[in-house]
Amino acid sequence: MTAGRLIVWRHGRTEWNLQDKVQGQADIPLDEVGIGQARAAAARLASLAPTRLIASDLQRAASTAAELATLTGLTVEYDKALREIDVDDWAGLTMAELAEQNPEAAARIRAGEPQRRGTAGETVEEVAARFAPALQRAVEDADPSDTVVVATHGLAARVGVCLFLGIPQAHWPAFGGISNCNWISLLPSRNNNWRIEEWNAGSLPEPVMSDDPQQ
Fold it and tell me: What InterPro entries does this protein's entry cite (predicted)?
């Protein structure tokens, strides 16, 4: 059995987001705007009647999930595999500082080429490899009537969902980033896999009324 819907939800804004600083696994809290974003998004997601709520244990994701827990009465479960990419000693650098201090690494990242973050951080491939199984764990015991919400981080969500869907890595850059407190909505398909219902969404899903049959 599998869930009827899987929502992968990015956390609200932090001060470091606003300052264009690399966060990685630095435990940065939501700022006032981010708290407001989380509350507004939680009110929309609550209308989907979620049945399970899982979050990264980093406080910006945990606090975002807590807003939905308050509205739904769900208990937040935590999974460290849902954390953002580990950037090691790059944490706190602005993107401009990173490009100045590590121009070759910054160029490889912009080009979508393999690059370990920081001295001993993770690669994008490593993040996806830990994140995708966490999504599978989140839905493996669910019923078709269930909606599972996962509160997490932008880069980890983007590449982890791509791997979860079986999308070849060469195509991952074709999927854009997730804005603060927006989400990816996935639905089960007829072949027991998953398909994208919405990507970087901030509004509730609408029925698809067209000549395009649902998969």
Answer: His_Pase_superF_clade-1, His_PPase_superfam, PGM_Phosphatase
How many residues are present in the chain?
215
Which of 67, 77, 84, 125 is catalytic? The answer is 84
Which of 11, 67, 122, 153 does the annotation list as catalytic?
A: 11
Angstrom CA distances, 24 to 124, 146, 158, stand at 12, 31, 14
User: 3-class DSSP state for residue 76?
Assistant: strand
Whether residue 153 lies in the annotated active site: no
Nearby residues of 203 by Cβ (< 8 Å), 6 or more positions away: 44
Is 11 one of the annotated active-site residues of the chain? yes
Run of H or E residues at 45: helix 32-46
- Rounded to 5°, angle at Cα 49 from 134 and 5: 45
The answer to whether the CB of 196 falls within 8 A of the CB of 183 is: no
Q: What pTM does this model have?
A: 0.94
Match 């997730």 to its residue by tokens: 178
Give, for all 215 residues of the chain, the pLDDT tens digit. 577 999 999 999 999 999 999 999 999 999 999 999 999 999 999 999 999 999 999 999 999 999 999 999 999 999 999 999 999 999 999 999 999 999 999 999 888 888 999 999 999 999 999 999 999 999 998 899 999 999 999 999 999 999 999 999 999 999 999 999 999 999 998 777 899 999 999 988 877 766 666 55
Residue 78 pairs with which residues in a beta bridge?
55
